[in-house]
Design brief:
The chain is of the alpha+beta class and 233 residues long. It is 47% helix and 23% strand. The strands form 2 sheets. A 5-stranded antiparallel β-sheet has the order 6-5-4-3-7. A two-stranded antiparallel ribbon has the order 1-2. A hairpin with a 5-residue loop joins strand 3 (149-156) and strand 4 (162-175). The radius of gyration is 24 Å and the shape is elongated. Keywords: Transcription, Transcription regulation. InterPro entries: CBASS_pafABC_assoc_protein, DeoR_HTH, HTH_11, WH-like_DNA-bd_sf, WH_DNA-bd_sf, WYL_dom. Residues 4-59 form the HTH deoR-type domain.
Length: 233
């Protein structure tokens, strides 16, 4: 859900809980301007939400209005539950906690029939704790990707050779049991991918980096597609 869509949802929730709400109160609660609230209220009205009131006097919802249960097909419910379970098992601790919270919220808004499907799902993602350090590395890498921080890693390649290098983390990709970090390697001055389970240490290097058109996850993916196409030809 986008930030704006989330805000519209929150406005409806606030209006549901109060008889009369001013634009100023909504703006303070949601940390936006009153002008933004006026636009949001107008958009909600145009989309069919029965908002009563006007700018300067406050707003309320017509009696009897409620949001419908989340409309997902049985297949969509089970696919979502399976995805959340996989994230809980295979990602870092922070994202696993977020997935657990999302799971609880999903169950709360599903219809009784769909909730029963979710609770009875037999698609599992068991954790055999094969790579316990990966959870810690995942959190460090995920945060570094979001904050554009250079990482220092100690890495052992497939031949068992140990190296140290500074990298610009660009993205995380899941290949079966293994998380792979897509990066720009300062040593090689090129893109490199590193398996998290082969890292003996990952830490922040204490400096940031600036992404460029030719130094980005999108550019890496374009190169991969081009190389794959050239091999076929």
């Amino acid at each position: 859900m986008s930030r704006r869509a989330d805000r519209l949802f929150q406005i409806v929730q606030i209006l549901r809980g109060k008889r009369h709400v001013t634009a100023r109160l909504l703006a303070e609660r949601l940390a936006v301007s009153e002008r933004t609230i006026y636009r949001d209220i107008q958009d909600l009205s145009l989309s069919g939400v029965p908002v009563r009131g006007e700018a300067g006097s406050g707003y309320s919802l017509l009696a009897g209005f409620d949001l419908p249960p989340l409309m997902l097909t049985p297949g969509e419910v089970e696919a979502t539950i399976a995805a959340l379970r996989m994230v809980q098992t295979w990602s870092g601790n922070a994202m696993a906690q977020a997935a657990e919270s999302a799971h609880e919220k999903l169950l709360a808004v599903l219809s009784p029939e769909r909730r029963l499907i979710a609770e009875r799902s037999r698609i599992l993602a068991p954790d055999f704790d094969r790579y316990p350090q990966v959870r810690r590395w995942f959190d460090v890498c995920h945060e570094a990707i979001n904050s554009l921080q250079v990482l220092h890693i100690r890495y052992q390649d497939e031949q068992g050779r140990a190296t140290q290098r500074n990298i610009y983390p660009l993205g995380l990709s899941f290949w079966g049991e293994h998380w792979v970090m897509v990066s720009w390697c300062e040593n090689r001055e090129d893109y490199r991918c590193f398996r998290l389970d082969r890292c003996s240490d990952i830490s922040l290097a204490g400096r940031g980096f600036s992404p460029r058109a030719d130094l980005s996850l999108q550019d890496f993916l374009r190169r991969q597609k081009r190389e794959k196409r050239e091999k076929r030809e």
